[in-house]
């Protein structure tokens, strides 16, 4: 059956109503014989089924757990996320390669997969937009029934010759107290039935002592493992100091608008501590070093890659700002903002978190006043920042109220001695309290 024909000079191109098959009719003016050639158009392949596989992982990741965002029968657009694969370092999003409908899930929710494992089957083509348009077409029809509720009330019932029918019952005389005891059981059943639902509600209001179990995701398991390894391996010791934030706060207040106008990013306190840490690490290279337990050697680095701890709903991640020694405040703020945005969107790659020679953890954003951070292995030290609070301090022999912050340095005492740790922390204190120290290289 021919759906339509299109003249092509002496030839005719005919399309069958089935959609995918076309016939090309060649005619020779010197003969009455027609040659028919059949071929398929791309329409026939719109409904092909694709098998989407697990993308390749980074070298240090071998497997992950699948968490489905879509179900069988769901319509997806191109590049829409169908599932996430949670590894011990990050989550990998798996987008749909084309628009279509999910036909089959080949891995259960929470199942383990490796690189190249088939994940789901996708039926491409016209089914996707039609499925999306169906609910829209049915929505007005479903909303149509409510208008009858606005119809005028029914007419009053006809009155009889005797008179109008009363619409209210006559008042019931009160029942004497002694008569309540003589009522049959059947008479009090409705009262008991009415009171029955109230009993569970009153019991539920007291609160049920229930429990729930949730499987630990791979990232949380890996964090727990690494922290325990650090505790078992490092001889951790913590030293403390306090920083007067008056000068850095005044500098930020004076230049934040100009800084934002020029660099298109806000000036925060984190960049001052990152820059101060890079300066102090250059002054005390042992804090930037690490022990190689395999070869029993100390590895000194002549570069500074600082890991910044970022809290996410799935766990703590530590993306790395690389080559901080060559950055200024604006470069650091841009790097922190970029990594923080990727962490919030769950777009951090393994490469963003590999390496790092030193870590800074800012518990002050949550209101922390004091704490001892744990080393992020295989590093040898970590700086803990805390909240800024007004406290009375002695300044020039007088008591003044200043914005103060406690800072803590946890270090591996196998490699770093107390003198080096205290000197490092005091160097950070001096740079943050007076940024001119950076200019004078003091």
General description of the model:
This protein is α+β, with helices and mostly antiparallel strands. Among the domains are: about 50-125, OB fold (Dihydrolipoamide Acetyltransferase, E2P) (Beta Barrel), CATH 2.40.50; about 235-440, Chloramphenicol acetyltransferase-like domain (Chloramphenicol Acetyltransferase). It is about 30% helix and about 30% strand. The strands form six sheets. Strands 13-22-21-20-16-19 form a six-stranded mixed beta sheet. The protein has a four-stranded antiparallel beta sheet with strand order 1-2-3-4, with no helix packed on it. The model is unreliable at about 10-20, about 130-145, about 155-170 and about 175-195 (pLDDT under 50). Its cofactor is (R)-lipoate.
Taking all Cα atoms into account, the compactness measure Rg is 37 Å
Which word captures the global form? elongated
Low-confidence segments, ≥5 residues, pLDDT <50? 12-19, 128-144, 157-170, 175-195
What is the helix tally? 11
Looking at the overall shape, the CATH architecture of the domain at 236-440 is 2-Layer Sandwich
Major sheet summary line:
6 strands, mixed
Q: CATH superfamily of the domain at 236-440, please?
A: Chloramphenicol acetyltransferase-like domain
Mean pLDDT value = 78
C-alpha end-to-end distance: 90 Å
The helix content is 25-40%
- Strand residue percentage: 25-35%
Structural class: alpha+beta
What is the compact description of this entry?
This protein has eleven helices and 22 strands.
């Amino acid at each position: 059956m021919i759906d339509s024909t299109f003249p092509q000079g002496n030839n005719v191109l005919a399309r069958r109503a089935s959609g995918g098959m076309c016939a090309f009719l060649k005619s020779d003016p010197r003969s009455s014989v027609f040659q028919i050639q059949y071929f398929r158009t791309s329409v026939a392949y719109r409904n092909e089924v694709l098998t989407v596989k697990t993308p390749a992982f980074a070298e240090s990741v071998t497997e992950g757990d699948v968490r489905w965002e879509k179900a069988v029968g769901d319509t997806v657009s191109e590049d829409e996320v169908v599932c996430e694969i949670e590894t011990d370092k990050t989550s990998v999003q798996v987008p749909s390669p084309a628009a279509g409908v999910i036909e089959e899930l080949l891995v259960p929710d929470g199942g383990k997969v490796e690189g190249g494992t088939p994940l789901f089957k996708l039926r491409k083509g016209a089914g996707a937009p039609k499925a999306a348009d169906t609910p829209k077409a049915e929505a007005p029809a479903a909303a149509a029934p409510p208008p009858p509720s606005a119809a005028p009330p029914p007419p009053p019932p006809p009155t009889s010759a005797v008179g109008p029918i009363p619409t209210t019952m006559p008042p019931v005389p009160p029942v004497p107290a002694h008569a309540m005891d003589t009522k049959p059981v059947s008479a009090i059943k409705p009262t008991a039935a009415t009171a029955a639902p109230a009993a569970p509600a009153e019991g539920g209001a007291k609160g049920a002592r229930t429990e729930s179990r949730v499987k630990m995701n791979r990232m949380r398991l890996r964090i727990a493992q690494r922290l325990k390894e650090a505790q078992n391996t490092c001889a951790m010791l913590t030293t403390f100091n306090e920083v007067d934030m008056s000068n850095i706060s005044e500098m930020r207040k004076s230049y934040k608008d100009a800084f934002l106008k020029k660099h298109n990013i806000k000036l925060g306190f984190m960049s001052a501590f990152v820059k101060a840490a890079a300066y102090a690490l250059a002054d005390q290279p042992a804090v930037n070093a690490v022990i190689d337990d395999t070869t029993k050697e100390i590895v000194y680095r002549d570069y500074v890659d600082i890991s910044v701890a970022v809290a996410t709903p799935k766990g703590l991640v530590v993306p790395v700002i690389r080559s901080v020694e060559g950055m200024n405040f604006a470069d650091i703020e841009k790097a922190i903002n970029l990594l923080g945005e990727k962490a919030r969107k769950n777009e951090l790659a393994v490469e963003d978190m590999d390496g790092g020679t030193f870590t800074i953890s800012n518990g002050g954003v949550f209101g922390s006043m004091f704490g001892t951070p744990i080393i992020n292995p295989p590093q040898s030290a970590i700086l803990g920042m805390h909240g800024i609070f007004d406290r009375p301090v002695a300044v020039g022999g007088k008591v003044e109220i200043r914005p103060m912050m406690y800072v803590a340095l946890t270090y591996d005492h196998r490699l770093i001695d107390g003198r080096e740790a205290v000197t490092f922390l005091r160097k950070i204190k001096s740079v943050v309290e007076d940024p001119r120290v950076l200019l004078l290289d003091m």
